[in-house]
Amino acid sequence: MRIKPVRERNPVAVAVVGLVVLALIGLGAYRVDSLPFTGGGTTYSADFTESAGLSEGDEVRVAGVKVGEVTGVSLDGPKVKVSFKVKDVWIGNSSTVGIAIKTLLGEKYLAVDPLGNAPQDPHERIRASRTTSPYDVTQAFNGLGETIGEIDTEQLAKSFETISATFKDSPPDVKSAADGLSALSKTVSERDAQLATLLKGSKQLTKTLANKKSSFETLLEDGNLLLGEIQARRDSIHLLLTGTKNLGTQLTGLVQDNNKQLGPTLDSLGRVTAVLVKNRKSLDKVLSLAGSYSRLVGNTLGSGRWFDNYVCGVVPKEYVPAGTPAGPECKPPKQQGGR
């Protein structure tokens, strides 16, 4: 059977089939985690009394190890339904699930404690009796601040004073307790403004930390990168220090090997230096005379390719013929100019 080439087929049908295939490939890439071979995992659900800030995409951990992520948080009547997917981990029919605090900035994760003698049915929701939510300190402070702000502290103090007066004839233990409550009410009344300011500041600090969460994360990530780079360069630094140590060892050996030759040489050099120092005046005199000598030699040879000299007293006086007029006294000429 002959297969019809693509170029002979209807181009509209080929284009439609190609678009459908591309759409299926894109959908498969987007839902790769849900595919049976490339993704996978089992999805469970649990009931919570409150979400406690848990959101979709948060981690799911077993014994501190990430095994999945939260896939959904929704309200289901008076309870909160939390769906999560895990992979390659066993969840028992008595497993407990809790929302735990991940960081000081309020991030959460889902902690699973796999218990039970049979696997948990994925279609059966984990009851609220097997789930727990964290105690949110931030919300507690905010609620405390709002509650204290609504309390009439003066009326509260009067109420405690009335109670104390009512129990004044009671046994000593009851009277002491009432007096203590009265003193407590007065203290709260006097410190009302300070408590309000403190709680207001705590609320502002919480908001600031929440707004700066990305900056803290960036700082921690940069510190992690720095430590990783130092660790990566550890071998190079180790080789540098080792090479420096070996160089010092080689130089020490070189000095020790040549110590017998360098010692006599340095001693001889010291003796020569001592002789030169001892004859310093003579050397200064020789150098000064050498300067004049060099100047005369330069004058002699500086006129051209001949010697410019003055010869006096070559013929003795007794050999001079009689009657020869006496010349001037034999003295060397005076130096003039450059000659």
UniProtKB/TrEMBL annotation:
The chain crosses the membrane at residues 12-30. GO terms for cellular component: extracellular region. Keywords: Membrane, Transmembrane, Transmembrane helix. Residues 122-325 form the Mammalian cell entry C-terminal domain. It comes from the Bacteria. Residues 41-114 form the Mce/MlaD domain. Pfam families: Mce4_CUP1, MlaD. The keyword Transmembrane applies. PANTHER family: INTERMEMBRANE PHOSPHOLIPID TRANSPORT SYSTEM BINDING PROTEIN MLAD-RELATED, MCE-FAMILY PROTEIN MCE3C. This is Phospholipid/cholesterol/gamma-HCH transport system substrate-binding protein. It comes from Streptomyces atratus. The lineage of its organism: Bacteria, Bacillati, Actinomycetota, Actinomycetes, Kitasatosporales.
